[in-house]
Each structure stands twice: as C-alpha cells, then as structure tokens.
Amino acid sequence: MQPQRLIQIQQYLSKMVLGQPNLVEGLLIALFADGHLLVEGPPGLAKTRAVKALADCVEGDFQRIQFTPDLLPADLTGTDIFRQETGQFEFQTGPLFHNLILADEINRAPAKVQSALLEAMAEGQITVGKNSYRLPKLFLVMATQNPIENEGTYPLPEAQLDRFLLHLSLDYPDAETELEILTLSRNEAQHSELQKPQPLTESELFAARDEALKLYLAPQLESYIVALTMATRRPASLDEQLGQWLQWGVSPRASIALERCARARAWINGRDYVAPEDIQAVAPNVLRHRILLSYQAEAEGISKDQVIQRLLKLVAVP
Questions:
Q1: Distance CA 10, CA 287 (A)
Q2: Hey, what CATH topology would domain 215-314 get?
Q3: Which residues belong to any copy of the ATPase AAA-3 domain (predicted)?
Q4: What's the whole-model pTM score?
Q5: Are 235 and 297 contacting, i.e. CB atoms less than 8 angstroms apart?
Q6: Mean of the pLDDT values across residues 183-203?
Q7: Considering the chain, what is the average pLDDT of its residues?
Q8: Contacts from 86-91 at CB under 8 Å and sequence distance 24+?
Q9: Mean local confidence (pLDDT), 16-41
C-alpha cells in the first residue's frame, strides 16, 4: 500500500476523533494486525464515531448492533425461517454476516448472546441448530463499553476478553482539545463534509496486512516478548510486590498479540523493522484485559496500567 494512502487515513481519523491519538493508533493497529478491538471509556468520548470513521476507510459492509439486555443470539446470527411455498426451512443471515461490526455497549447483552459472539470472533463462523455457517473472510468486531454504569450490565467472560486483540481505555480530553471540539460542534455541517479517503479494497487490506506482519523482528525481541508474558505468570520471581498484585497472568495468545501489534505499529510508522519501543507502546493495550489483579491490589487502589508499567520497568530490554 502506498504511504500516502495510509497518511490520508490517519489524517481523516484524527480529524474525526479529536484529542484521542491512542484511539486512532489502536484502530489502525487492529485493522492491519487482523484482530478485534474493545474500546472502553465514559460516554461522549467519540467511541462510536471513531469506529464508524474507520468503517469509512474500508470497502466493506458495516453493521452497527446496539447491545441490550433483551437481545437474543438469533438477533446476531440469524435464524431458520420456514418457507410455506417450498415447505422447507431457509436460513436468514443476521447482522454478523458483515465485514465490520460495531458492537455498541457490548456488556449490556446476556451470556447467551456473548457466547454466540465469542464463536464468531474465535472461529469465524456461527452455528444455528445443527448447521454452521462461515462468516466473511474480512471480519472485524469493534466493541464499545461504558465503565461507569454497572446496572443492567453483564461482565464479559475472560475467554471472550482474551479474543480481543486490543483493549483501549479512553480518558477525557484536555481543555485545549475540548475547546476545539466545542468550535467544531457549532460547524457540524462543515465537519461532516470532511473528504473521506479512498476506501481500501479487501485485496489492498489483505496485502497491507501481509506486508505489516512480515516486518523484521529480531530474535532478541521475540525473547523479550516471551519474557514479558512469562513475568505475568510468575511475577513473584521478578518482584515481591508485583507477585502480591497479580493473581493471574496472560495466555500464549498475549505473546502472539504483542508480536502482531508491534509489527503493525512499526509498519504504520513507516519502518521495516520492530523496535523495543513498539512492544512497550502496545503492551498496555494488549495486556490490560488479560491480567487479573489480586484483592490486595484492588484494596490498595492499584490499577492494571500501574502493574503493566511496573512490569515494563522490571523486565530487561535487550
């Protein structure tokens, strides 16, 4: 893919989502590393807007699903419908049979719905009755959730959290950015006329993914990735306090995610090799939803991000 195409996409996303560079970078990494994305933050931080803006940059079917407590698995997967004229059942596809899926407020859906979505994310297929149906080759779930309200929500299962490549945690913008947002809100018509970049075709996107995921990664950095993940499983051997804070470490899927995201980040930044700072930059978003803190850490008010930063300081960089 031509560098100019990537720059246009970056500029478009940055203009559509002001003051959230971490979100823009995370969207692009998820897109080019071929992984699902979970975006968490308070209301009004343009989470849904950002996902829609990314959909503008890709040539594919986009579908938004508003998750609610009364949602049923069939509302996602589709169902068998009896055709009276033929006397047979015919499968009617659901909204999951699109390329880009926005799962808005994903934690408001019950366990059966989460199970159906988990199969789609993990296996690239859905099962209705005795039959399984393949989803499109280009299939990307971008989910949002609000961490403030707990009423009427269902915590995501650990198995499903592990299927998300990245977990982005957003915070409020600074005063200068909010003034810019205020100015743009008065000129929404002008803002909505931003020139959209030429969408990436599926073939272009797959070619870009291949290019990104074949970037050179030194053996020493591969060992560094493994050292980071191993440290989450045996934290006491690295640091006594870290051992008191971490109850459960990450799976091997985290090592794979760190490698893929580091390669994608390096490629987005125009390099043909992965540097240690690429791994360190993506580590919080890759590990945040995969580690489990102890009761002691929660009682002391220690956050997952603090644990990850301590981990990055303690594990030696090659």
A1: 25
A2: Helicase, Ruva Protein; domain 3 (1.10.8)
A3: 36-166
A4: 0.89
A5: no
A6: 73
A7: 88
A8: 91/128, 91/131, 91/133
A9: 90
Q: Among all chains, which residue has been given the structure tokens 């930044």?
A: 269
3-class secondary structure for the chain?
A: CCHHHHHHHHHHHHHHCCCCHHHHHHHHHHHHHCCEEEEECCCCCCHHHHHHHHHHCECCCEEEEECCCCCCHHHHHEEEEEECCCCEEEEEECCCCCCEEEEECHHHCCHHHHHHHHHHHHHCEEEECCEEEECCCCCEEEEEECCCCCCCCCCCCHHHHHHEEEEEECCCCCHHHHHHHHHHHHCHHHHHCCCCCCCECHHHHHHHHHHHCCCECCHHHHHHHHHHHHHHHCHHHCCHHHHHHEEECCCHHHHHHHHHHHHHHHHHCCCCECCHHHHHHHHHHHHCCCCEECHHHHHCCCCHHHHHHHHHHHCCCC
The token pair that represents 234 in the structure block: 């045996």
Q: Please report which confidence band the pLDDT of residue 189 belongs to, taking 50, 70 and 90 as the band edges.
A: low
Candidates 3.40.630.30, 1.20.1260.10, 3.40.50.300, 2.40.400.10; CATH matching 3-171: 3.40.50.300
Predicted local confidence at residue 145, as pLDDT: 87
CA-CA distance, 248 to 213, in Å (whole number)? 29
Q: Are 65 and 101 within 8 A, CB to CB?
A: yes
Q: Residue 283 — very low, low, confident or very high, per pLDDT cuts 50/70/90? A: very high
